[in-house]
Amino acid sequence: MTNINTQPTLPETYKQQIKQMLGEETEAFLQSFYEERTYGLRIHPLKWQLHKTTLEPMMSTFSLQSVPWCNEGYYYDSNTRPGKHPYHAAGLYYIQEPSAMSAVQLLDPQPGEIVLDLAAAPGGKTTHIAGRLQGKGLLIANEIHRERAKILASNVERMGCTNAIVTNSDPDTLAERFPMFFDRIMLDAPCSGEGMFRKDTDAIQEWSPDHVTLCATRQWDIIQAAVKMLKPGGTIAYSTCTFNYAENEHTIERWLDRYPDFTLVKQERIWPHKQRGEGHYVAVLRRASHLEDTAESPISSASVAMTSYATGDTSTRFEKGNKGKQKKAAGRKNNSSSNVDAVYEQFVQWTYEYMPDWQTPLSGKPILFGEELYWLPAPSDFSGEQSNWLEGKLNGLRVPRPGLHLAHVLKQRIEPAHALALSLLDPASASSSIQLSTAADAAAIQKYLNGEALLLDQDIQADSSEVAKGWTLVAIDGLPIGWGKLANDMIKNHYPKGLRAVYLL
Ligand SMILES: C[S@@+](CC[C@H](N)C(=O)[O-])C[C@H]1O[C@@H](n2cnc3c(N)ncnc32)[C@H](O)[C@@H]1O
């Protein structure tokens, strides 16, 4: 690590708080402010496993070193820019501060489970959970702030999550809709951010003892909602990137006191003077399997069972958050279930030609937002009725991403969605593909990611057995990155305008 020889001015009350907590270690802690902050990335496990041999040489340019507490985590050299590399755009990894990777490692979500990330933007924990679920089960990632929810949705899309829904709700509203629904919940609470001080000196200006108290009060409110949504026998990870006791251990003590059906499974801290990370706190709590065994239950009725779901009203889906799009579609088509089925059938017909291995997921359902076709995910044991119930539960919420975006439906024409490309692990999923390599095709990669058309035999030497007229999947070192459309030896660029940029190779 480089010595940066500068130390930000820390509030005296903050230093006293640290001294009370750390005693003799205080000096070592304060010395850590002279060290450079840590940089990390967390890889997408399935994309990495499938293409490891091809990707490893390029990844070595970031001088990756394993993060000891996270299977998918790596430190990278701060002189490199993995966030500007095309692999980032292809969703191979997520840039994440290493100690923040401890939270999902400890939550330990399993494929097939129903998981909530309650305070999710920009998506570090969400995309980590999604990697662990491996596309099986259901992930609801929620963010209270509208703009941050959009960023969350775009990161979920970039990381190719197939089974994640992104909602933009306050925790209480969500709790009314999903009582005792989740097997696991991640609550990465908004906090006073003491662990951010090396990374972001603005966080120091915002810090005060009153701010710590305010954060603890807000955390307690969010916890009430989280508790309501956890199933009996479920697990919750509460985490912060702050050091003080009020927002961490004291909050957990209060929790255990108020809700005796919870037990503390473990709590861990990462300190910047002891480990290579900015600092994080994680507590894992488990709820008793039988609520009636507990002295006090926070939920008055345990009547919400998977068998008692009402069928959702599919005609008024999420109307609140999508008025604009609904309006646009008005008069041209309606989103009745027969229309959705017809549009989905049109998409299936499209896959016969362009993605012959596509299989309709066994659970969940297609849904239509104006001109956008999505697949609403559901755990594999969900019946059609339960998927309808889930859809109904989203009704009236803002839902920036109701599932996997499959296609734009334009006047009876299907255009595959960018999210669909990023959800694919292998270019062979498409009947036609252009395979670019960082070693040989740097100029063509820049052109594509900049939104320019590619000319066959000029920009790229494509293998004629892999390229065919029409929709073509573009891949970099085996990682699908977007769509193009081939006609007359030219690939028309369908890389989304908002993502076009100059990347570093
Ligand atoms: C620590 S950040 C989450 C980081 C995220 N989990 C990640 O790993 O990328 C906390 C989030 O809580 C949100 N938040 C703020 N006030 C909130 C509230 N009252 N209820 C729920 N979430 C809130 C913030 O907008 C912020 O996105």
UniProtKB/TrEMBL annotation:
Sequence segments annotated as region (Disordered): 313-336
CDD domains assigned: AdoMet_MTases, RsmF_methylt_CTD1
SUPFAM superfamilies membership: S-adenosyl-L-methionine-dependent methyltransferases
Residues covered by the SAM-dependent MTase RsmB/NOP-type domain: 29-305
Positions bound to S-adenosyl-L-methionine: A119, A120, A121, P122, G123, G124, K125, E143, D170, D188
Keyword presence, Nucleotide-binding: no
GO molecular function, one term: methyltransferase activity
Active site positions, chain numbering: C241
Keywords: Cytoplasm, Methyltransferase, RNA-binding, S-adenosyl-L-methionine, Transferase
Entry superkingdom: Bacteria
One BP term from GO: methylation
N-terminal signal peptide: none
Family in the record: Belongs to the class I-like SAM-binding methyltransferase superfamily. RsmB/NOP family.
Protein name: RsmB/NOP family class I SAM-dependent RNA methyltransferase
